[in-house]
Specification:
Strand content: 25-35%
CATH architecture: 3-Layer(aba) Sandwich
Order of helices and strands: HHHEEHEHEHEEHEEE
Bound molecules: S-adenosyl-L-homocysteine
Number of strands: 9
Shape: globular
Largest sheet: 7 strands, mixed
Distance between the termini: 46 Å
């Protein structure tokens, strides 16, 4: 009971003092953040680590992204309630859990089977049923359920994989960190009705490298 109260206070402080102050205004994104306990996605469940604005190791050399970056990406993704969203890089499952509150269906692909299994369990324990976790190489997307209204990649790619763009619907948005040497650049790709692409550089960031066919070998 006490732990429950502590986590809610810490989460609220993180949202008010960091996430809102740094400019996240989207009401649905903020509500999603308030509804998902981040500590459940962190091995050991440490509350201080979970509710600080930092990336945290989740094992197998991977990390759960910094909360501000997660919130920023979700705001830029402009998800609507009827959307079907593809995520590449399930990791802990935290971002997928947030997406489950914003979208109709979420398809998420993870390269490391152990992480996918752990994420599945946490999502199930939280009663989340609209997230579908797949093990495999997501660098070519997930053809089975394509096309998607939105695609979000949470590992950094050497370049924007064409197959991901081809699995995006018209009026779709793809967010992807692309490695540019010493840092990654978070890119927003907007696919217009005539198929034309607009690509914006949003901000420098640091993500773990994408593996697989269109990743780093
Ligand atoms: N969104 C995650 C953060 C994931 S870190 C969260 O909320 O916790 C990035 C993840 O991408 C890692 O788990 C890594 O294993 C995964 N990854 C790397 N290359 C991949 C690929 N080609 N296909 C699917 N997942 C990949």
């Amino acid at each position: 009971m006490r732990k429950e109260k502590d986590y809610r206070e810490l989460l609220e402080e993180l949202i008010k003092e960091t996430i809102e102050k740094r400019g996240i205004k989207d009401k649905r994104v903020l509500a999603a953040l308030r509804s998902i306990p981040r500590h459940l996605f962190i091995p050991g469940g440490d509350l201080v680590l979970a509710y600080s604005d930092h990336p945290v190791p989740i094992g197998y050399g991977q990390t759960i992204s910094q909360p501000y970056m997660v919130a920023y990406m979700l705001q830029e993704l402009e998800v609507e309630p009827e959307h079907r969203v593809l995520e590449i890089g399930t990791g802990s499952g935290y971002n997928a859990a947030l997406l489950s509150k914003l979208a109709k269906e979420v398809y998420t692909v993870e390269y490391i089977p152990e992480l996918a299994e752990r994420a599945k369990k946490v999502l199930k324990d939280l009663g989340i049923e609209n997230v579908h976790v797949f093990v495999g190489d997501g660098s070519s997307g997930l053809l089975e359920y394509a096309p998607y209204d939105r695609i979000i990649v949470t590992c950094s790619a050497p370049e924007i994989p064409g197959t991901l763009v081809s699995q995006l619907k018209e009026d779709g948005i793809l967010l992807i960190p692309v490695n540019e040497g010493y840092y990654d650049m978070l890119k927003k790709v907007v696919k217009h009705r005539d198929g034309k692409l607009e690509i914006y550089d949003l901000m420098p960031c640091a993500f773990v490298p994408m593996r697989g066919k269109h990743g780093f070998t």
